[in-house]
Design a protein that fits this description.
302 residues; 74% helix; two-stranded antiparallel ribbon; 2 strands; 3 domains; 14 helices; mainly alpha; single chain; globular
């Protein structure tokens, strides 16, 4: 994750090997969807009115955080002199781009930062609304997922694309995956040779065809299964495990603080020539400063 965001700021998405990290952004929303069905529905009964309210409220809060962060970015980034392209959220075209289509990438940067928070908030609010019909029809989320996939196919026929729609669809796939008992998932993941072969095929495919949405739908759960296998194969103690658990407890906090730190480093890099040595130093600094413990300490002092 640190490498992915560091590349965004210091190299750019045109980097040849960027495609091998493309699974990271949709992985956030896939995991969110997984938690909705696997965690929330195990904690709350589907008929509990607190569940749709909690999901919808969390979605609204994320949307509010997104707006506050980007308003702050609008005023702070020009002062920092990062050279990043900024979008005016008061412009009607930009509003449509950010909140509907999601095509926020522009030459020289992005219209906004923290863009993944928008589809995640939509997924939470949509899932909250779907909990009401889910009480009466257990395949509600399956039907909606098929509808979202068909919508993407239709847009493809008219040569249009909506990253927001694609991310929400991947999040809905995460919801469907969360309905699978965790024991069944563990049994499947504990076949490293099959998993390794599948990941090799996926890597060959994106090397040839880059990362279209069809391959993202395969690559996101596959990559997460590989990471999950590494996690369940490790020991129950150790510093790395404690760091990962700490990050899990403050995932949103960690994501925001990482982006802030990287923007500060990016601003500083504009005053020096970005040679190989400077790039290497910036990555080591980003990795050190964005570790979970350091991030929490950094913002506690701030």
């Amino acid at each position: 994750m640190v490498l992915y965001h560091w590349i965004n700021y210091f190299i750019g998405i045109q980097w040849e090997y960027y495609r091998y990290l493309r699974f990271l952004t949709p992985s956030f929303i896939f995991v969110t969807g997984f938690m909705i069905s696997n965690v929330y529905l195990s904690k709350y009964d589907a008929t509990d009115n607190r569940l749709p309210k909690r999901l919808f409220t969390r979605g609204l809060k994320l949307l509010a955080i997104f707006l506050v962060l980007n308003l702050a970015r609008t005023y702070i980034v020009p002062v920092m002199g990062t050279g990043v392209v900024l979008g005016n959220l008061q412009d009607a075209k930009n509003i449509f781009t950010v909140f509907v289509s999601g095509n926020v990438s522009v030459v020289g940067g992005k219209l906004i930062s923290f863009s993944i928070l928008v589809p995640i908030s939509y997924l939470l609010m949509l899932s909250g609304a779907l909990m009401l019909p889910y009480r009466f029809y257990r395949y509600t989320f399956h039907v909606v997922c098929v509808f979202l996939l068909l919508s993407i196919v239709v847009l493809g026929f008219i040569s249009m694309q909506s990253p927001n729609l694609e991310l929400i669809t991947i999040g809905m796939l995460g919801v469907l995956t969360g309905f699978i008992p965790i024991g069944a998932i563990n049994d499947f993941v504990r076949h490293p040779y099959i998993l390794g072969f599948a990941y090799l095929c996926y890597t060959i495919a994106i090397t040839i065809w880059n990362v279209p949405f069809s391959l993202q739908m395969v690559g996101v759960p596959l990559s997460l299964m590989v990471i999950y296998l590494v996690g369940i194969s490790g020991s129950d103690s150790g510093k790395i495990r404690s760091e990962v658990i700490l990050l899990g407890k403050y995932s949103l906090f960690g994501y925001i603080s990482q982006m802030v730190i990287l923007q500060i480093l990016s601003a500083g890099s504009h005053f020096v020539h970005l040679g190989v040595a400077v790039l290497g130093i910036s990555f080591v600094a980003a990795l050190a400063l964005t570790s979970p413990a350091n991030r929490i300490s950094f913002f506690a002092l701030a």
